[in-house]
Amino acid sequence: MSPQYWGFIKDPLYGYIRITEIEKRIVDTQPVQRLRRIRQLSGAEYAYPAANHTRFEHVLGTMYLAGILSQSLPIGLSDQEIQRIRLAALLHDVGHAPFSHLFEPLLAKYLGKTHEDMTFWITTESELSSALRADGFDSEEIGKLAVGRLGDLHRHFLDQIIRSSVDVDKMDFIVRDSYHTGAGYGYVDIFRLIYTMDILDGTLAVDVTAIPTLETFLLARLESFRAIYFHRVTRAVQIMILKALEQAKDDLGIERIKTPETYLALDDYVVWSTLKRYKKSRGIIQDIEQRKLLKCAYERTFFAKDELFTSVLTNEAVRKQIEGEIATKAKVASEDVSIDVPSLPSVPYHYAVEIEPMDIPVFFKTKSGEKVSQRLTELSKVVDVLKVFMNVIRVYTKESYRNEVMKAAETVFGKPQLHDQVSY
Amino acid sequence: MSPQYWGFIKDPLYGYIRITEIEKRIVDTQPVQRLRRIRQLSGAEYAYPAANHTRFEHVLGTMYLAGILSQSLPIGLSDQEIQRIRLAALLHDVGHAPFSHLFEPLLAKYLGKTHEDMTFWITTESELSSALRADGFDSEEIGKLAVGRLGDLHRHFLDQIIRSSVDVDKMDFIVRDSYHTGAGYGYVDIFRLIYTMDILDGTLAVDVTAIPTLETFLLARLESFRAIYFHRVTRAVQIMILKALEQAKDDLGIERIKTPETYLALDDYVVWSTLKRYKKSRGIIQDIEQRKLLKCAYERTFFAKDELFTSVLTNEAVRKQIEGEIATKAKVASEDVSIDVPSLPSVPYHYAVEIEPMDIPVFFKTKSGEKVSQRLTELSKVVDVLKVFMNVIRVYTKESYRNEVMKAAETVFGKPQLHDQVSY
Amino acid sequence: MSPQYWGFIKDPLYGYIRITEIEKRIVDTQPVQRLRRIRQLSGAEYAYPAANHTRFEHVLGTMYLAGILSQSLPIGLSDQEIQRIRLAALLHDVGHAPFSHLFEPLLAKYLGKTHEDMTFWITTESELSSALRADGFDSEEIGKLAVGRLGDLHRHFLDQIIRSSVDVDKMDFIVRDSYHTGAGYGYVDIFRLIYTMDILDGTLAVDVTAIPTLETFLLARLESFRAIYFHRVTRAVQIMILKALEQAKDDLGIERIKTPETYLALDDYVVWSTLKRYKKSRGIIQDIEQRKLLKCAYERTFFAKDELFTSVLTNEAVRKQIEGEIATKAKVASEDVSIDVPSLPSVPYHYAVEIEPMDIPVFFKTKSGEKVSQRLTELSKVVDVLKVFMNVIRVYTKESYRNEVMKAAETVFGKPQLHDQVSY
Amino acid sequence: MSPQYWGFIKDPLYGYIRITEIEKRIVDTQPVQRLRRIRQLSGAEYAYPAANHTRFEHVLGTMYLAGILSQSLPIGLSDQEIQRIRLAALLHDVGHAPFSHLFEPLLAKYLGKTHEDMTFWITTESELSSALRADGFDSEEIGKLAVGRLGDLHRHFLDQIIRSSVDVDKMDFIVRDSYHTGAGYGYVDIFRLIYTMDILDGTLAVDVTAIPTLETFLLARLESFRAIYFHRVTRAVQIMILKALEQAKDDLGIERIKTPETYLALDDYVVWSTLKRYKKSRGIIQDIEQRKLLKCAYERTFFAKDELFTSVLTNEAVRKQIEGEIATKAKVASEDVSIDVPSLPSVPYHYAVEIEPMDIPVFFKTKSGEKVSQRLTELSKVVDVLKVFMNVIRVYTKESYRNEVMKAAETVFGKPQLHDQVSY
Q1: 154-213 in D: which are within 8 Å (CB) of B?
Q2: Minimal C-alpha gap between C180 and chain D (Å)
Q3: pLDDT level of residue D303 (50, 70, 90 thresholds)
Q4: In sequence order, which ranges of D298-341 are alpha helices (DSSP H)?
Q5: Residues 6 or more apart in contact with residue A205 via CB below 8 angstroms
Q6: Which of A210, B388, D410 is nearest to C10 (CA)?
Q7: Which residues are registered as beta bridge partners of B18?
Q8: Tens of pLDDT along A246-282?
């Protein structure tokens, strides 16, 4: 039976997104509607004023691309399977906490969860679960697929459509973030990627003919990382919000979250207002609202070989220790020094670990139609160089302490080279 | 002395917006930064998911266009005058309450103010005033200019740049709303309007050669009105928020606003969270968060000749009376019937009265360079027909009462014709 | 059997145009490939330098839209029927002569044909005919459909998809001409039109919900007409080329065209080079190549009631007579005066007669799903006013005779009003 | 004295290009107007149907960017200097032969000239020279500047604005070629490059903060090279046209070109028509017009270390020798084998040698405002890897000989690896 369509949703990127009656019912649940109040790029709006888009339009876009890709794959997926994939794509971000990735270290620390865990939890135990079942879907299955952990041994591609180095999630946010920031790095021809994708031994793979697009896509991700997600100002705001969240964690009741509903009651609006009311966090929020932001006093880039060093810094105790050391040398309070490392749990940078693009399978189609697997890094020197890139360490402090903290950080981490700058 | 530039701000519409040191200082004040948390189109995001842009990027864009127009006018404005105009454009919306125009009837009812009054008040009595004075500006003058009430008898155009039928405010929001909604009506060549503008007897005027663009601009405004601002779903959400605001007005303390700071403490985040906490308004907000929206049970279009009738409906007492009458006939509670009229004070539609485009002066330049004033409506039949357009009356109710309320409304207002539909 | 796809063609407007093996074979024939050397807008590049697009990309785009519309119509057209419609759309312009519409009066005068006649002739008697038959198509049927003259009494919509007031041909050129000229009037949401179309009594009809888009579409056509197709400079170049063609008609052998192949041997390149070599036409082409263009000495707009007058001027003998009269009064040679009227056979304006939009059927869908036919002009005052618009008369001459000819034309046609200007 | 503006030209990329009275006079000369009939990307339209843009709009765009950059450079160039730079940018391509770079080997072989030589010649000895002098310009100086050979020892940047690795010429064609092909690689934020440029020791340099944009720009150039300029189909058409030109060189009278006027009489229209008429070249042109193109039978990529090998192949005698050898082995006629190497004089690839980006000076601005020169390749691993990229060798033949020629080529050049494919 062919799908029953409800109608179209207008999207500035893709024009008309056609949705089914089933999708309409799921879109209208509170867990999905809540994403309207969760920003896609918390903090980035301080570098790019127009970056106010939310997870809501992102999940609609991701669902759209998941549908296009599923229909385009030359393996004849059924309407029912495509519907499942689209629903999983729609739900892939329902587990996000307020301020998206920013909240994640608190989830990890106080609940021992990632946002993907929350996505699965909400899909299977909130009103979403009954809504899915009412339409004949297995909410466990959709929940696993939504976070790319279905683990179908013969059909890895099901997970990879939503979660891999070239998944529809990344495709959507690369172009969407570029559209709303105006940053100008993400105008990637993602439809060329989609239309050249195929399945190789159960795995999603890209035709070698799309390597130029793949290179452009990977460079766009890197530049978006530098120019948007890891922009100095973006990170300054994120560090400040994270500090405020830590201060207000009791008032927010993070540790008392026992049901999906308690968790889903939190969104950007509620948390921001709470942080503003609560005495311990109020000052930080006021500073942000008056644009008195932390300043970057020190910045240094590390390459692959320094991974060990970086991973040491991701240990919160070690980091606190060094922050204290820098503070002492600079004669400022310990809390006025913040070390920021991309993959650092305390101020997470979700995308960092995924910059590694080696796991993108590519294939060459011979004249006889046989698909031969290839190593991308052998075919593309650009991809090869992009894969070792980039670890950053920064030290933030208040504007008035900038010089002292810079000098202190230099005695600890060494004097940075000019080329150590990442974003500007 | 030529202006001291601070740097560039990236905007997705205009690329690089260059700002001066002075502008940077004003942008960084709390009253301007607050606009980051005031949506440009409250409610429209329920019809167009990506419509999450804020007043903040709009005022930056308006400042940019004000600068381009000021420099382009062939009357040699000085750098200092251009700076004044740009600052006024930057500040033209600082008086907006949460949810932009939606809040306006409460301002009117409880404070006797419009958002323009608030803009002037904030510009002259908040920290903005001292910031402006510190840079040598007369905050009273900037405040008047920001709301288009400078009233310079010989230079009307100063007010008209910011407030007239073809002002830079409207130019910015027409293209910006289109960009973020994806609605597809607003891709107007506003730079053609700007580059063909001139001053005629102290008044801003458009060269007749730009009439095709002017027609396109005015039609784009009308279609944006129908498709975005007055979309049935947009209005449903707005009516619900307005009801919630009325319920919670004591908790919000609207009547107790005595200082700019009290007023500026309100933004979308704070008010939304308050409405959600407060018992009387909680139910409505929960309904919105679960997308249980009011439904339009009746809709009818009126043309110019019916203005009298419309204006009667804008009287709150009359409207309440008729809502009660319809409710009685439909056997539902009076509060479950909402009459919605564009120019109605209780659910304001700010732009409605400005659809009237007759006051756009146009001129023809003779071979000798003389500019001869023309009547636009004589030159353009399209403009002529656009000017009488459009008054709408709608009756909203809960989904389950739709049929009864429809029938009751028909006995009161008459059976609508098919062509009475406005948005879809 | 589902269609065999050959691959994708990249189009700057629609992204990827997927074509079938059959379409690939037809695209690669000489009659279709020849369209690469026939400009879409001959003459307009002198007003808009980038307007160098050709009929070739236009027919690909038209085929694409025809496919989208055919698939979207809720009447379940078969793959075979959709293929037929796409092929007809692909071929709808193969009959165009060099310089597109510009050549048309010569076709009429010396061969008694229109470009549609030529399209049918070429489709049924050139190599296209055998190519179509080889793939199992009836070339007569495709030929008729390509020019909208299939005349299927129960399925008028087949003709209307390709030839009506809102056909895919017009949709494509409105957005394409805007894209390549940059003129800024044609950013119409044509996909909204397509997705809301349906069949009513065998006729293509537009849902009333798309009226705002329809108004935008019709205004875009009007403004494109004024700003591009009937731009003074565009017309000046067109008049000059037409004069050159008349001079060189023997050398071009227009009257000796007996086979499709002779006709297809003519393209912009060949004809331009011939005009440049041939003594009688050389001067005109040299003038164009040095941008010494005719100037418009007189311009006047006429409305519906003056149709009679306009139609008199379309009579070549009458026009020649009046040109002579003006020339005598201005004391210049008769050949130095050119009267230009949009619908004039000697300098045709193809689109003019189609500005009439009354024949666009619209319908309203009731709750029970019934479609009720509506009169568009009753529903839309904008459409109503657009329909009576616009007839223009202009008199062109050499730059140095401008004043004399202006005065002479004024004694004949009356002094124009300022609002008589059309393009600028 | 401030510049006298004539008006605006509409460009689809930059909107309104404002031009001076002087520029208007130069634009209207025959040498500039002729560029309307010289395609920017001859041959590429067979891979991208909409790639029909010409040198004319490119030189207008280049002039525009030259103006923006000149005004933006913080060294206070005078209006007169900016006018000179804009004029040079406008004229930088007047020396192009028909089919742009395609014709170049014939210029080299029969006249011993490059298109830059021709640009200088035409600027100084055609009507352009007197037009420039009439407005007070030194045509020799403009001519040198137009080809980047002014050689001002203290102001290298004057040449570099128009001719260097990040000149305005390349900026314009990267975005323009992308716009018209739709290829999707060239949406580069060129204005970020322009606004961050400065002068360092008389040399044009880019601020390190723009390195992400620089990387994007350089990758865009590389991908445009692979996907557009060196697309297999593009090159097939180019090889065919070049063969036709060689055949028809006597008829075209290339060796008899003695005056600028003789040269300027050649354009795409004239040459195409001539090739079509002339017996020796007719067959090739007919093949193109029926899309019977040469096919690539062999392709291999070479990296930097193979430069020697590549340069051997650029020797025409050597190449002819090897073509003969392959032909003999494949048992086909020698003329049916074409070896194609990017930097090969006989089928030139102008951009190839410039892929080398090492000469882009970058600088870091210290807090004290001092600009410190940097090595780009040390700062950017991406740039470092892009610089050694890419040499290609291909062997083309007729479709029916493909297999034999492939095998023969493999015995000569070795069996290619899968990763040897460049475009697809």
Answers
A1: 191-192, 195
A2: 6
A3: low
A4: 307-313, 316-330
A5: A197, A198, A199, A360, A361, A362, A363, A371, A373
A6: A210
A7: B8
A8: 999 888 889 999 999 999 999 999 999 999 999 999 9
In whole angstroms, give the CA distance from residue B421 to residue B230: 11
Amino acid at residue number B409: A
The CA-atom distances, in angstroms, between B341 and each of A137, B327, B392, C381 are 43, 17, 6, 21
Residue D193 Cα, gap to closest chain B Cα (Å): 12
B5 lies within 8 A of chain D by CB: no
Query: If you count them, how many residues does chain A have?
Result: 424
With 0-12 / 13-18 / 19 or more C-beta atoms within 10 angstroms meaning exposed / middle / buried, residue C3 is middle
- Strand A362-365 and strand A203-207: the pairing is parallel
Asked if the C-beta of A16 comes within 8 angstroms of chain C's C-beta atoms, the answer is yes
Contact in structure between C384 and C416 (CB atoms under 8 Å):
no
Place of tokens 């530098």: A226
Confidence band, pLDDT 50/70/90 cuts, at residue D128? very high
Higher per-residue pLDDT: D309 or B393: B393
Do the beta carbons of residue D128 and residue D34 sit within 8 Å? no
Q: Which residue of D has its CA nearest to C179?
A: D12
Range D282-290 contact pairs with CB under 8 angstroms and sequence separation of 24 or more? D284/D240, D284/D241, D284/D243, D284/D244, D284/D247, D285/D244, D287/D240, D288/D46, D288/D237, D288/D240, D288/D241, D289/C30, D289/C33, D289/C34, D290/C28, D290/C29, D290/C30, D290/C33
| CA-based nearest residue in chain C for residue B213 | C185
Q: Tally Cβ neighbours within 10 Å of residue B400.
A: 10
pLDDT tens digits for range A213-232: 999 998 898 888 888 988 99
pLDDT for D349 equals 38
Predicted pLDDT of residue B344: 41
Chain C residues touching A195 at Cβ < 8 A? 8, 16
Tell me the pLDDT tens digit for each residue of D221-237.
888 888 898 899 999 99
Range with lowest mean pLDDT among B331-340, C269-278, D378-387: D378-387
Neighbours of B278 (CB within 10 A): 16
Quickly list H helices, C135-224.
Answer: 139-146, 157-162, 168-181, 190-195, 211-224
Q: Has residue A356 got a pLDDT over 90?
A: no
Element (H, E) at D200: strand D197-200
d(CA A86, CA A106): 30
Contact C50 D11 (CB under 8 A): yes
Contact residues for B31 (Cβ-Cβ < 8 A; gap 6+) = B91, B94, B122, B126, B127, B128, B260, B264
Q: Do D212 and A227 touch (CB under 8 A)?
A: yes
* pLDDT tens-place string over residues D390-423: 678 899 999 999 999 999 999 998 887 655 555 4
How far is C88 from chain D, CA to nearest CA, in Å?
19
> CA-to-CA distance for B422 and B403, rounded, in angstroms?
20
Complex ipTM value: 0.93
* Chains contacting B (3 or more CB pairs within 8 Å): A, C, D
Separation in Å, CA A302 to CA A307, A385, D386: 8, 14, 21
Cα gap B175→B177, rounded to integer Å: 6
Distance CA D339, CA D395 (A): 5
3-state secondary structure of A348: coil
CA distance A321 to A317: 6
**Looking up tokens 């766009």, which residue turns up?**
A220
Asked if residues D9 and C47 have their Cβ atoms less than 8 Å apart, the reply is no
Which residue of D lies nearest to B193 if distances are taken between CA atoms? D16
Return the SS3 of A3: coil
Task: Please choose, from the candidates C182, B179, A179, C178, the residue with its C-alpha nearest in 3D space to the C-alpha of residue D13.
Answer: C182
As a whole number of angstroms, the distance between CA D218 and CA D211 comes to: 10
List all residues 6 or more positions away from D136 whose beta carbon is below 8 Å from its beta carbon. Answer: none
pTM: 0.94
